[in-house]
Amino acid sequence: MQTQFGLIHFWQQGDMATHATALILLFLSVMSWALIVGRFVRQLHINQAIERAPQAFWQARTLPEAIAAIEAADRTGLFSGLAHVGAQAAENYQSSACLGAGVSLSESVTRALRNQMLSAQANLEGGLTFLASVGSTAPFIGLFGTVWGIYHALVALSGSSSVVLDKVAGPVGEALIMTAAGLFVAIPAVLAYNALTRANRLVMAQLDGFAHDLHAFFATGARRAAVKGKTVIASAAAPAAVARQAA
């Protein structure tokens, strides 16, 4: 591209509307890329937590050890938050004097886990609305710059009996650049939104399964046994062995 038709030339010959449109697209691009990088780095931590956190919890021998182990294995706080609120709900059930004490232990644990699941879902979806908004509006913002550039080209041709390249090259180039800028901002935002939405569905499925296991542990007692005054993590497939230890 020749120097007289470079980006600096287009910027210098643009007006306030052109500059505002370009700055808006630049701001949306920077914000969306910062959000994309941050969310994908966090997704790597979540994937590590999916592999380590539940296993760390169930391999512990006592409930305090399990809480400490899952907090160490889960840097995101998604799985450890479920374990913590479930244990807190089961602990407070007997001593609670509030309105929620009128329900059963199972319902109390279910309520605590459900609220934590909703909080985790809201946490996972943070920033997705911005990416969706950028992906849907950036092409139209670029289209506005395109229309404005074509308008300048028509104004430059008004009163001329023939088409002069020098008069239309700048506005037409400005219009094409705005179109490309809008697509450059929108396409990564849309792709990242779709990828993160799918990843969130998988994470929520893992959290739902872990919450179900925690409910069985805290509420039904199928994976719990009292041994020497401590709550011990036990397998549901070996109740006889737990009973022998308790004896």
Structural features, described:
This protein is mainly alpha-helical. Helices cover 79% and strands 3% of the residues. The chain contains eight helices and two strands. It has a two-stranded antiparallel ribbon. The protein is rod-shaped. Residues 222-230 and 235-247 have low confidence and may be disordered.
Q: In this structure, how is the largest beta sheet organized?
A: 2 strands, antiparallel
Give the quaternary arrangement of the chains. single chain
Structural class of the helix and strand makeup? mainly alpha
Spatial order of strands in the largest sheet: 1-2
Strand percentage? under 5%
Quick structural overview:
The chain is mainly α. Helix content is 79%, strand content 3%. The protein starts with 6 loop residues before the first helix and ends with a helix.
List keywords for this structure.
single chain, two-stranded antiparallel sheet, 247 residues, mainly alpha, 3% strand, rod-shaped
Question: Topology of this structure?
Answer:
Elements: H1 7-13, H2 16-59, H3 63-73, H4 78-95, H5 105-124, H6 128-157, H7 165-220, E1 224-227, E2 230-233, H8 239-246
Antiparallel strand pairs: 1-2
